[in-house]
């Protein structure tokens, strides 16, 4: 497994430095990398999607476990580095994992080919929320996501109704999946060290994601744009009262099941 000195040396050899605009913070703690892969259960013959492989530290760990890896790298220079190291052992896709409509990019969909897969990745921070939602909403063949994300995002995923972090991301994800935090990561686990803490989380889909998860997600997103307004004024008093909710309440105090009842009532 790559040490921090190895990562720095590989980049220096090519005249490269971590690029902030791509959210490049390289996770170099070996124990945490193994813990993420162990939690995923990925092993011999399993198909794994990795977004943002960087220098290939996690990629090589997955290959050691016998996984079939599809790695997606936006940075052309890092894609070249990964190709030189393990390009003959993986499917390497150069570009954004999400297309213009923020759906999974067509080369990624084609590489997966409808097969069951898991996402195991130290995600670039800007990709985390849209990718999590996209996989849950539109890719039922994704068996789960084991990812490193900002602690702030993890807090949104695990928040409870009425808490400041409770919002559309947590509602949408947890309406379709169980979320568990695996570990909390201090900035020192990364190079360069970010200004925020990070977290490893597991997102495992429910067997039944509901009748219309995309419609519910759109409803929740719209509703939370009015989170400071009373529900009766937003949806109508009769609609709100029909599901046993006080019209003077605001959406931020409602749990997922109540929000689902509201969605069916509108």
Structure report:
The protein is of the alpha/beta class and 266 residues long. It has 2 domains: 4-210, Vaccinia Virus protein VP39 (Rossmann fold), CATH 3.40.50.150; 226-265, Helicase, Ruva Protein, domain 3. Helices cover 42% and strands 19% of the residues. It has a 7-stranded mixed beta sheet with strand order 4-3-2-5-6-9-7, sandwiched between helices. A two-stranded antiparallel sheet has the order 1-8. Helix 4 links the parallel strand 3 and strand 4.
Layout of secondary structure:
Blueprint: H1 4-13, E1 26-27, H2 30-40, E2 47-51, H3 57-64, E3 68-73, H4 76-86, E4 91-94, H5 106-112, E5 117-122, H6 125-138, E6 142-150, H7 151-158, H8 168-176, E7 177-185, E8 190-191, E9 198-205, H9 213-224, H10 231-235, H11 237-242, H12 256-265
Parallel strand pairs: 2-3, 2-5, 3-4, 5-6
Antiparallel strand pairs: 1-8, 6-9, 7-9
Helix pairs in contact: 6-8, 8-9
């Amino acid at each position: 497994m790559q040490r921090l000195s190895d990562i720095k040396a590989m980049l220096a050899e090519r005249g490269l430095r971590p690029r902030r605009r791509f959210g490049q913070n390289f996770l170099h703690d070996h124990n945490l990398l193994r813990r993420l892969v162990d939690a995923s259960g990925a092993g011999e013959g399993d198909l794994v999607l990795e977004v943002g492989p960087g220098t290939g530290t996690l990629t090589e760990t997955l290959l050691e476990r016998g996984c079939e890896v599809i790695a997606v790298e936006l940075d052309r220079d890092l894609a070249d580095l990964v190709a030189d190291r393990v390009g003959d052992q993986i499917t390497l896709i150069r570009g954004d994992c999400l297309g213009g409509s923020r759906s999974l990019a067509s080369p990624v969909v084609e590489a997966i080919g409808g097969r069951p897969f898991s996402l195991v990745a130290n995600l670039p921070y800007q990709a985390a929320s849209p990718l999590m939602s996209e996989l849950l909403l539109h890719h039922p063949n994704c068996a789960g996501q084991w990812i490193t994300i900002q602690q702030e995002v993890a807090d949104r995923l695990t928040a409870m109704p009425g808490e400041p972090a409770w919002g559309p991301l947590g509602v949408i994800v947890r309406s379709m999946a169980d979320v568990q935090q695996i570990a909390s990561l201090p900035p020192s686990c990364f190079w360069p060290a970010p200004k925020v803490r990070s977290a490893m989380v597991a997102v495992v889909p429910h067997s039944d994601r509901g009748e219309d998860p995309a419609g519910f997600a759109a409803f929740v997103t719209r509703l939370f744009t009015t989170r400071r307004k009373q529900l009766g004024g937003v949806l109508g008093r009769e609609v709100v009262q029909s599901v046993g909710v006080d019209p003077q309440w605001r959406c931020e105090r409602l749990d997922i099941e109540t929000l689902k009842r509201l969605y069916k009532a509108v």
